[in-house]
Amino acid sequence: MRRFSNVAIASVTVVSLCTGAWLLGSGEETHAPPQPSAAEARSGAADPRSAPALPPSPPDRIRIPSIRVDAPLMGLGLTRSGSLGVPPAGEKNLAGWYEAGTTPGETGTAIVAGHVDNADGPAVFYDLGAVKKGSAIDVDRRDGSTARFTVDAVEVYKAAGFPDQKVYGAADRPELRVITCGGGYSRSTGYQGNVVVFAHLTGSRR
């Protein structure tokens, strides 16, 4: 499998996730998904606790118990514009991972993305903005192992100022980013930014 630096992904990475089809169709702007508070932003030095890196292995499933996510993962590539492809909009409980980059659990920054909603209602990462620091994220891998990540921060960015290097840049330990849409909603433009969960590997099991 050919590997690429994650930072090569364009800043419009998840634009295809962000139309807000359900809110637009139902007029439910008042029921927009939760957004992270300032208290969940990254502060100070990185958490020094980290588990040893795992060998590369494609992921099959992601689980975030605090928001009741338990979803299969499909591989995602890049579009012609350099943005990350997205899972089919009709598959509301399906997320994807950037398969030309780091696999979750190995050294580096692994990327997972999923829809916040679709035309029928909330989708897999609708509640991602409600995740708190210290929450667990488990990723089941094809080699039979499960990589456990601990959340370091949950932040929201406007699309125009998305910090590519901060989100996609190389890491010297196993890290994970989980991305969906957020940052407010407008009927004319859809979601105005992205919610990003930052996490690092703190354990594994078979």
UniProtKB/TrEMBL annotation:
Keywords: Hydrolase. InterPro entries: Sortase, Sortase_dom-sf, Sortase_F. The keyword Cell division does not apply. The keyword Ion transport does not apply. Residues 28-63 are annotated as: Disordered. This is Class F sortase. It comes from Streptomyces gilvifuscus.
